[in-house]
Design goal:
The protein is mainly beta. It is built from one helix and seven strands; from the N terminus they run E-E-E-E-E-E-E-H. The protein has one helix at about 85-95; strands at about 15-20, 25-30, 30-35, 35, 45-50, 55-65, 75-85. The protein starts with 14 loop residues before the first strand and ends with a helix.
Amino acid sequence: MSANGSRRLPTLHGHTLDVSATGLALIVPAIRIGEHYLAGSDRKLYIKLELPNGPVELKATAVRYESLDDDSGYLIGARILEMSDSDRATFEKYVSSQG
């Protein structure tokens, strides 16, 4: 437990393959962190995206996943559940610039 009382969540680094206003596709090296599956039922993913116009944090849930053929990891399709209003504005600006 940290001094401010919040607990540090385990992390896994990956990258996005695709983003939309309601979801994203993630490439990650593993489908588990410790004993917990990232795509487990009712599993919440806390995601921090480093975008060109600034970082955003969001909460999502996996709706599907598959192992990549070349053993480079897993593709996770995630639906965005929530993010702050300011992060939503930054995220939507980024998504609209990609189209």
